[in-house]
Amino acid sequence: MARIVMKFGGTSVANVERIRQAARHVKREVEAGHEVAVVVSAMAGKTNELVGWCTEASPMHDAREYDAVVASGEQVTAGLMAIVLSDMGVQSRSYAGWQVPIRTDDSHGSARITDVDPKNLDERMSSGWVPVVTGFQGISDKNRITTLGRGGSDTSAVAVAAAVKADRCDIYTDVDGVYTTDPRIAPRAKRLERVSFEEMLEMASLGAKVLQTRSVELAMAQGVRLVVRSSFEDPNAGDAPGSEWGQTGTLVCDEEEIMEKQIVSGVTLARAEAKITLRKVKDKPGVAASVFGPLADARIVVDMIVQNISDDGQITDITFTVPDSEFDKAMKVLKSAPDLEYESISGSKGGAKISVIGVGMRSHAGVAASMFRALSDKGINIQLITTSEIKTSVLIDEEYAELAVRALHTYYGLDKADAQ
What we know:
InterPro entries: AceGlu_kinase-like_sf, ACT-like_dom_sf, ACT_Aspartokinase, ACT_dom, AKii-LysC-BS, Asp/Glu/Uridylate_kinase, Asp_kin_monofn, Asp_kinase
Oligomer: single chain
Number of strands: 18
Largest sheet: 8 strands, mixed
EC number: 2.7.2.4
Pfam families: AA_kinase (PF00696), ACT (PF01842), ACT_9 (PF22468)
Keywords: Amino-acid biosynthesis, ATP-binding, Kinase, Lysine biosynthesis, Nucleotide-binding, Transferase
Organism: Pelagibacterium lacus
Low-confidence stretches: none
């Protein structure tokens, strides 16, 4: 018997029939003897509708009341899931975030979880009931409903799994696992059976849409094993031989649980990257703070950063990327930034960031060089390069993005053998 937290995303609970399909997955695990808790998102599109209502009511609305409105989407789903499970003969009841309680700070709209009290959920699970918890929300120390922002339901599920000491957290979505790259770009992409937390964190932050970065960070910190599965697969298909989590899916786990570590496990693509270059910046202590401090204050996320210092060390060129949507705002902030001395500023939209990721890169030299060679063979020019221990990223023109993904996917052999 295992203790499992099962999370269902918006597309998996988009209507009552989809909720009924998700409930069949829950019933399968209950009938197998497992203790189960469920975390649900709002129905697909519902959160956007609620946000729209808030904006229509007042463009300058109170963030606390915004959270009270937006959190209602998950409450509807949780109640419907509990009703459907009960109708199937599975004892169940719904819990809003404040009833668990899931405690957060008071940063309305983007709150962070500070604590989850497992007592109520433990009691229900131990007695054979299935608690259905609203994702995306909690309660602040001022007793106001809060929402967690982007990726909040995944984060809620991981936090609940950590609190109740679950053996794993199953994230049900509209895809059947994590792939070596986007199958819509490279049709021969393979589903990974296992991927490390570190690799998944890089993939999530570099363009993969399967899991949100916050949830992977929390899972890695708390040691919560994740399984990415599809809610659209047959709930009665049964378990695959030798697989502890079912017939399909990808296990996200500690690196030590992965026997064969591929040099490159995946290739990711992030579109709409804008590049900004400051030329002949006075190179003195605090220059980086004078550039990136104002951007941080304006809540502009900076990604790739490259600095070139002149031979005499007096001036430097600084180039970095921001999302296309933040380009105009970033240019305005820099042009009006105090204490920032430079000769000229330039930039352009329409870049694409291509990344190769793999824990095997730690012990293999020359991965970056081979990546550059593969792109050169296709006539693709590289504008920026950044590296870490397990990934190498390059910025290229967006028109070559899909060609670059397919070329690298083939170059590293991800087309050929089954990914492990």
